[in-house]
Design goal:
This protein is mostly beta strands. The protein has 4 domains: about 240 residues, no CATH class; about 130 residues, Sandwich (Immunoglobulin-like), CATH 2.60.40; about 190 residues, no CATH class; about 120 residues, Immunoglobulin-like, CATH 2.60.40. Helices cover about 5% and strands about 40% of the residues. The protein is built from 5 helices and 47 strands. An 8-stranded antiparallel β-sheet has the order 2-3-12-8-7-13-14-15. Strands 25, 26, 31, 32, 33, 34, 35 and 38 form an 8-stranded antiparallel β-sheet that branches. Strands 27-28-29-30-36-37 form a 6-stranded antiparallel β-sheet, with no helix packed on it. A hairpin with a 3-residue loop joins strand 28 and strand 29. Helix 1 packs across helix 2. The radius of gyration is 28 Å and the shape is globular. The relative contact order is 0.09.
């Protein structure tokens, strides 16, 4: 922190507090219009228009073709016969340009469209939000706001209802649901808003009316009194307005997101009571795998009921209903554990599940059991790294660190020095032989400001640009007397590395030290971040890279608890133009003698289909469904491996493969005389010029028998 600001703090504490609190806050200011798209397979499709507002104290970044813009989900709910149920959901509209209008304020400082200004609003019509190029929900971390862009899951659109907000005709029947109340809801998710913890007010709702229209249904808003948009409230928070017997409870999972639990109680007589629960996951990335209602003593429980909402249009998640288990003192509904099925029907962000039962006792508590591990942004099971925007991928690699040596770098608070790299290093095409080493945990081109102590998301149009953030936070190497920053070039051409080491550097105003390193690699132009030891665990800074324009970048983490682990190294490497993300990580275990069993551990990505091949007989192979023909053009000996859950064996040459995601093992008995086996994981080809036609070989794993 600069001495100039220290002087300001001494004379104007109130002003300094407001500075530190500056952050954007995007809300849904209005749901102004509806598009009706007709029906297919007795399912009607709709879209709600949304007008966003920035009620915060800083501009909200809004850049198309990156992951620095909002995404917009739409939902539909029904209140009927004492129940609150979600009956529809859409895929996600990706924001692309922010206007500067005045629905929620005066918009005193209009922007150029790359951010939503303070007090400004931006309208997205229902036609925009109903676009069939929308992206999936499954790639969004609603807690941090992170998502890959471009999104990976992008199946073909084959119907008028695909990717739009879908509602079954049966859920709109005026005969079955006479007098029902329907609510339309929309929400905004954006990284800066989420990191600032301003994301609990991002959903708004409005009452919506449905009428039969021939073979479909039409939806409309009515502007009569009481039917305007209710801002900054999820639809479930409107249930008590229509039924005053309903009570609401917020459950905030530490380091994660918010669940909203609604309960309604109906006395039946004869000592029996009917309980209605609705649990809405507003923005929890960890999600929920179980919901338990606990009683104070032995209880008779009956008339169990469960209701969820259907995923659609090729979304990866299962739709299997939760199973109920009754004990003498509780009732629990559960889905599969994430280690069994990472795409199980967990209660994920932007969805609401409903539960119901009759009991002769009063509940004393409820329990929500998380689906994912406790690390923010953690996945279960660990997946191959997601493909990041800007042509770089992030991967965990074996830990490596260097002894701090070489030239002493910046020694003062908020200072930087210019260093010779020792070779030419290129980041996003910007070739450099010199670079600034900053005291606040980042490197940048010599034309940029190396002294900025307030970290931000990446990419960001704000200065500095071209950042390489090993751990960008407010650091002070002059505090405590033991902090030091050194840089050196190690190795020999053409495989040298430029190494910057931060040793025992305190975060400003604390005695908590950070120890980490940044490597820049010759020839490959890869960037490495090594965490030696950390006091904050990543909760106070930014890790990632961006280009000189601030429009392309790869964000590893920002202010995310447990995102840095002692003794770990990650690598950011540039992908070739025809890069195909690996569909799985593969590891071998077992002996290689004849008659013994080999085990292949498969950890597959939920967003990519998986095909495994083992060296045996030649193709081509006709693949199931519409996958076409696999003709790898390799030497004789490619044998498909059946990939389903359970005990596996090598398939015969006529065997086919399905696409199952998750963690599982393939077991194979070693035949006599076999000297070795190679298994290949397949990835989708994103570029028609990539090798091997429809698929591309990635991640070969070879086992040579003794």
């Amino acid at each position: 922190m600069s001495s100039r600001l220290l002087a300001l703090l001494a004379s104007a504490v109130v002003f300094a507090t407001s500075l530190s609190a500056q952050s954007p806050n995007v809300i849904v200011g209005d749901l102004p219009d509806i598009s009706n798209y007709g029906s297919a397979n007795n399912i009607a499709a709709f879209a709600w228009g949304t007008t966003s507002c920035n009620t915060g104290t800083a501009n909200l970044t809004w850049i198309s073709n990156t992951n620095q813009h909002p995404v917009i989900p739409q939902n539909a709910y029904r209140i009927h016969n004492g129940r609150f149920e979600q009956i529809g959901m859409s895929w996600l509209k990706h924001g692309f340009y922010a206007l500067s209008q005045t629905l929620c304020g005066s918009c005193p400082n209009p922007t150029d469209g790359t951010s939503l200004g303070i007090g400004c609003s931006d309208p997205y019509t229902s036609g925009l939000n109903g676009d069939q190029g929308n992206g999936p929900r499954s790639e969004i971390n609603a807690t941090t706001g992170y998502f890959p862009f471009p999104y990976v899951l992008n199946p073909p659109v084959t119907s008028v209802i695909d990717r739009r907000l879908q509602i079954k005709h049966a859920d709109l029947s005026n005969t079955t649901y006479a007098g029902a109340i329907y609510l339309a809801e929309a929400q905004y998710i954006q990284p800066e808003d989420a990191v600032a913890n301003n994301d609990n007010d991002n959903a708004s709702y409005r009452r919506v009316y449905f009428t039969a229209n021939g073979t479909s249904y039409n939806a409309a808003f009515q502007s009569s009194a009481g039917n305007t948009t209710v801002r900054m409230k999820a639809a479930i928070e409107g249930w008590p307005l229509y039924d005053p017997t309903v009570t609401l409870t917020n459950f905030d999972n530490p380091g994660d997101g918010r669940f909203i639990i609604a309960r309604r109680v109906q006395a039946l007589g004869n000592g029996l009571t009917k309980y209605f629960y609705a649990v809405h996951n507003l923005n929890s990335d960890r999600s929920a795998k179980a919901f338990t209602v606990n009683f104070g003593g032995t209880t008779t429980i009956s008339n169990l009921y469960f209701h969820d909402v259907d995923y659609h249009s090729g979304e990866v998640y299962s739709g299997t209903d939760w199973a109920a288990t009754v004990t003498p003192t509780s009732v629990t509904w559960t889905t599969d554990d994430c280690t069994v099925n990472p795409n199980a029907n967990a209660l994920r962000w932007g969805t609401c599940y409903s539960f119901e039962f009759v009991a002769n006792n009063t509940p004393v508590s409820t329990t929500i059991t998380p689906f994912k591990p406790a690390i923010v942004g953690g996945v279960c099971p660990p997946q191959p790294p997601a493909v990041s925007i800007g042509g770089y991928q992030v991967a965990s690699v074996p830990y490596v660190s260097y002894t701090a040596a070489g030239t002493v770098g910046p020694t003062g608070d908020d200072t930087s020095v210019t260093a010779n790299i020792g070779f030419t290093f290129s980041l996003y095409g910007n070739a450099m032989t010199q670079i600034k080493v900053g005291s606040n945990g980042y490197l940048c081109p010599t034309t940029q400001d190396g002294n900025v102590y307030t970290n931000s998301s990446l990419p960001s149009a704000g200065v500095p640009n071209g950042v390489i953030a090993g751990y960008w936070t407010d650091l002070d190497p002059s505090a405590g007397g033991s902090g030091q920053i050194r840089y050196q070039t190690v190795g020999t051409a053409p495989n040298r590395r430029f190494v910057v080491t931060y040793t025992n550097v305190y975060r400003y105003g604390t005695t908590q030290a950070e120890n980490f390193q940044i490597f820049l690699e010759e020839t490959t132009n890869a960037v490495y971040f090594t965490c030696v030891t950390t006091s904050s665990g990543g909760s106070a800074g930014t890790r990632g890279i961006e280009d000189l324009t601030g429009t392309n970048g790869t964000l590893v983490s920002i202010n995310a608890a447990n995102s840095m682990q002692n003794g770990t190294t990650i690598k950011l490497s540039q992908m070739p133009s025809n890069f195909v993300p690996p569909s799985a990580n593969l590891t071998w275990t077992g002996a290689g003698t004849a008659g013994s069993t080999l085990q292949v551990r498969v950890v597959s990505r939920p967003s990519l289909p998986l095909l495994l091949l083992v060296d045996s007989t030649p193709g081509p192979f006709p693949l199931p469904g519409n996958l076409g023909t696999l003709n790898l053009g390799l030497s004789a000996g490619m044998w498909p491996v059946v990939d389903g859950i359970g005990l596996f064996g090598f398939a015969d040459p006529n065997g086919k493969t399905d696409c199952v995601c998750g963690t599982y093992d393939i077991l194979a008995v070693v035949p006599p005389g076999l000297s070795g086996v190679t298994i290949y994981s397949q990835g989708i080809v994103l570029d028609a010029t990539a090798p091997n036609g429809s698929f591309h070989l990635t991640t070969p794993v070879t086992y040579n028998f003794p």
